Amino acid sequence: MAPLLDIHAVGVSFGGVRALDGVSFSTEAGRIFSIIGPNGAGKTTLFNVISGAYPAQQGKVVIAGRDMTTAPPSARAALGLQRTFQNLQIFGTMTALENVMVGGHLRQRTGFPSALLGLPSVAAESRAMRRRATELLDLFDLAGLGGAVAGELAYGQQKRLEIARALACEPRILLLDEPAAGLNPSETEDLANVIRRLAGMGIAVVLVEHDMRLVMAISDELLVLNFGRELARGTPAEVSSNPAVIEAYLGVEVD
Amino acid sequence: MTSDTPRQLIACAVLATALALLPIVAPNPYYLDLATKACLAAVVCIGLNLLSGYAGQLSLGHAAFFGVGAYASAILCAKVGITPVVAMLAGCLISAGIAYVMARTVLRLKGHYLAMATLAFGVIISIVLNREVALTGGPDGMSVPRFNLFGYRTTGVWAGYGLAAVALVLAVRTAIVFVNSRVGRALRAIGDSEVAAEGLGIDIARYKTGVFVISAVFASVAGSIFAHADRFVSPAEAGFMRSVEFVAMIVIGGLGSVAGSIVGATLLTLLPQLLAGFDHYRHFLTGLILILIMIFMPAGIVPTLLASGRALHDRYRPFGRSARSVTGRTSEG
Ligand SMILES: Nc1ncnc2c1ncn2[C@@H]1O[C@H](COP(=O)(O)OP(=O)(O)O)[C@@H](O)[C@H]1O
Ligand SMILES: [Mg+2]
To answer: Locate the ABC transporter domain: which residues (chain A) (predicted)?
Structure first.
């Protein structure tokens, strides 16, 4: 069986900067696959290539067995791919609840004609979506904030809101870009539990994260990037004992 | 931008009642004529606000779609002898077709290409209306037959006002339901963050095209009704200054607000009339008032008033703002 997400030798350059160079990995449903590496290593660029925000200049992106290398982001989302953003991209003027309702866009049907005619199905669909979105807000400790304008929420709340929004369309693959950044230790602990639970539900989680304790605790497999290239890969134990990794990355970041 | 649909629909019913009572309270042809113009400008603005206030796209040529509707009705009724309702629908189809082709061509590109394309389109329409004298009467304009429905002829300012009022109520009702649907939420998401919207599976070009076509049709319908209400059309109605006025109306009233579209359209239609007594200073005073509104209410009149209303409400509640957030803005309904 083909892996759920298969990245094959992707390369991206920005002018003279080789942001990604021959990076490959694949992952499966229910696994937590983490990508680590110093700032500028190309982690976010890799997410942009997977989600379709940037085109891959070399290599292939295969999602659920289909070659999506040149497909737009919306087509990749339709195959069950979702992501969060390192620099939050919430819908700031909409309420928290509406953010999550937009998240369920692909799970709803209403098109322009029925929305214009105001058919009864339109309001019914919104009500159903509103219920599901409320449940997701509860799950992410945002109960009671549904009516708040998302742009006015606290940073940690906005981060959780982005994950809730990404889950609203029941993704099969979830890319999380530094979800623990800016969270305190107890919030990070909650996040670890949430990520484990998502993997338990069968979602393939791909995690980019600087918090080594979190990464080592929850990952099934790790990929270490340095200057756009693979430096090492393996289980947390294998990677943390790899001399190249200790020298290039862990030695600097972890004391 | 509230998602409290039932409350908005009640407001729509109140608006309908007020519009119905107006001719009884103020049975004066001059007032009715002004009210007709305000209603039609509001219809254009509601459509334009869906495009600009929700999806975040600027149009500098919406008066041209108004002109397409107005001249389609004028020419088809006066020169071809087609019945007004069919002429209005033909105007809608032409406007929708033009908008669709423009959007498809331009929306693939990022940036403000739609603003530039609409600007160019407006200029072209103006030139055509002024030059094609045989068809349009040129700069002098042309007169338009009365509106009639299934052979029942309507007469006087009453009929024009009635049509405009009905169009406004329908436009408001349509916009409220639309904005609170999946499609409306997708458009607002696009306005807030295109990357995130696209990542959630929203086909951005398709949605922008759709809302641009809708906004063009709103303007076209308003133009058709205007032609019959005024019994006369001239190129000035389709000109660049009118397009800018429509943009000013939604900015003053409030981007992303259906009620704001009506307030802005009404204010900018009435203001020059209210200030008529000041003669030479009229334009200066109009400009001054608009500048003051933008300084003190940068979000537009309706959103600013709603926000301060909410703030007042909070101050007199024991649980303050977050408690309001829980119960206030979104209700199941
Ligand atoms: N849009 C872009 N334009 C130009 N350079 C970019 C762009 N995005 C990323 N880069 C460059 O690519 C490299 C990798 O960046 P990034 O993927 O953001 O790293 P990371 O997420 O691992 O910190 C950096 O040198 C960065 O400056
Ligand atoms: Mg990054």
So the answer is: 2-252
Largest CA distance in chain B: 70
DSSP one-letter string for A169-197: T--SEEEEESTTTT--HHHHHHHHHHHHH
A102 to B183: CB separation less than 8 angstroms, yes or no: no
Residue B313 within any structural domain of the chain: no
Residue A243 lies in a domain: yes
Directed axis angle between helix B204-230 and helix B156-179, to 10°? 170
Give the mean pLDDT of B107-117.
78
d(CA B9, CA A243): 67
The span from the CA of B231 to the CA of A62, in Å, is: 62
The interface pTM score, or ipTM, of the predicted complex is 0.92
Q: Which residue type occupies B311?
A: A
Burial class (CB in 10 A: 0-12, 13-18, 19+), A93: buried
**Domain hosting residue B141, numbered range:** 6-282
Per-residue model confidence (pLDDT) at position B330? 33
- Predicted local distance difference test score (pLDDT) of residue B279: 76
Domain-located, residue A236: yes
Does B298 fall in a domain? no
Residues of chain A neighbouring B5 (CB-CB closer than 8 A): 123
The reported pTM is 0.91
**Do residues A166 and A96 both lie within one domain?**
yes
Instruction: List A residues 90-119 in contact with B (Cβ-Cβ < 8 A).
Output: 90-95, 97-98, 101-103, 105-106, 108-112, 114-116, 118
- Rounded to a whole number of angstroms, the CA Rg of chain B reads 20
How many domains does chain B divide into? 1
| Calpha distance B186→A130 (Å, rounded) | 15
**Which residue type does A26 have?**
S
- Is residue A183 domain-resident? yes
Q: Do A91 and B322 touch (CB under 8 A)?
A: no
Cα separation, B6 vs B330, whole angstroms: 11
Looking at the structure, do residues A35 and A95 belong to the same domain, yes or no? no
Reading the block at residue A122, the tokens are 């339109």
**Whole-number mean pLDDT of chain B?**
88
Q: Which CATH number fits the domain that encloses residue B51?
A: 1.10.3470
Q: Does residue B267 fall inside a structural domain?
A: yes
The pLDDT tens digits for B194-246 are 999 999 999 999 999 999 999 999 999 999 999 999 999 999 999 999 999 99
Residues ≥6 apart with Cβ < 8 Å to B134: none
Contact B214/A159 with Cβ under 8 angstroms? no
Counting the structural domains of chain A, the total is 2
Instruction: Judge whether A228 lies within some domain.
Output: yes
